[in-house]
Design goal:
The chain folds into two domains: 1-89 and 283-309, no CATH class; 125-278, no CATH class. By secondary structure, the chain is mainly alpha-helical. It has helices spanning 2-22, 31-57, 64-79, 91-132, 166-171, 174-190, 192-205, 210-231, 237-250, 268-276, 284-306, and strands at 133-135, 143-145, 152-155, 161-165, 260-261.
């Protein structure tokens, strides 16, 4: 029962930490480290929530969650479902076992469904681009979409593509376009689509939870800020800021499903202010401590699954 109590406390702590982190502003000073912390909170919350239910349900077997599951499955296979639950096995333990396995199945299925839908959307859009987009020698390596609206986005994957509209070419100056393309290249290079995928899946599984919606929104903003920071290495931050403002005033076309767009964030002004007046970066020691804490937090739940108490 000790493992169940600790896992329940860990899941609660992760939920509270996510709630506080969603309203914090210090992550803007170190978006990559904050993204890692968000990922750690999400993974740990899922494993701890499932583990707490299973640890309580399988406590009569002893040996922890992993051993209990193995023993339970062996009993079901060898003796049948009626003999799989060791007595005395009361209704709360049966309910906890059912809830734990159901939550685990929902999280896995929703993650796979979100990934499958994203891949299908990208495949359809790539087929569409083959019909309506073209290359331009003036903008090498970029697909040009004949559309008057302002649009710039990337389709990550094994064959990543960066797409801009004809309206974007006429809207932005050369330096601003360079900044936007550097931003999209950062999305592709750092695979921010994979960062967002678990939070998208979690928002599908638990759409009624405000903390889940806030987590998705916060990570989406941090992903954009991380791409902005990468783009700043190759262009003027003010040029990227003016490009974002031009996208905002021109009514930028939203990025299609499965894509990441430069002007698609709901917090454009926060990004612009950060680019124009960047705050001091978090001390390196703090960032290293944050990474270390995230790693330790991530491995804590799996270790507790093995704890025999």
């Amino acid at each position: 029962m000790i493992a169940a109590a600790v896992l329940a406390a860990l899941a609660t702590a992760c939920a509270l930490g996510a709630w506080r982190l969603a309203f914090a502003r210090w992550p803007w000073r170190a978006p990559r480290s904050a993204i890692l912390l968000w990922q750690s909170l999400g993974v740990t919350w899922g494993l701890a929530s499932v583990g707490a239910l299973l640890a309580y349900a399988l406590a009569p077997y002893g040996g922890g969650v992993v051993y209990g599951l193995h023993t339970f499955l062996d009993s079901v296979i060898s003796l049948g479902l009626g003999h799989g639950l060791l007595g005395p096995y009361d209704l709360p333990r049966v309910a906890a076992l059912t809830a734990g396995l159901t939550l685990l199945a929902v999280l896995v299925v929703v993650l796979l469904a979100a990934g499958t839908q994203t891949l299908r959307a990208r495949r359809r859009h790539r087929a569409l681009l083959c019909l309506i987009a073209h290359d331009d020698p003036g903008v090498p390596g970029v697909r040009i979409l004949d559309h008057p609206g302002a649009a710039a986005y990337c389709l990550p994957g094994l064959r990543s593509e960066v797409v801009v509209s004809a309206g974007t070419l006429s809207l932005l100056s050369h330096d601003e376009l360079t900044a936007v393309l550097a931003h999209e290249a950062a999305h592709v290079r750092e695979r921010h689509d994979l960062v967002l995928l678990p939070f998208t899946a979690l928002s599908w599984a638990l759409p009624w939870l405000g903390v889940v919606r806030n987590a998705h929104s916060s990570v989406a903003l941090l992903v954009e800020m991380a791409a902005d920071d990468r783009a700043r290495r190759y262009c003027s931050p003010r040029r990227l800021a003016t490009a974002l403002l031009r996208f905002g005033t021109a009514g930028a076309v939203p990025a299609p499903d499965g894509a990441l767009g430069a002007g698609s964030s709901d917090h454009v002004m926060a990004r612009v202010n950060r680019l124009v007046k960047p705050g001091a970066a978090l001390p390196r020691r703090f960032r290293y401590s944050l990474v270390t804490f995230s790693v330790l937090l991530t491995i804590s739940a799996p270790l507790l699954w093995l704890y025999p108490g």
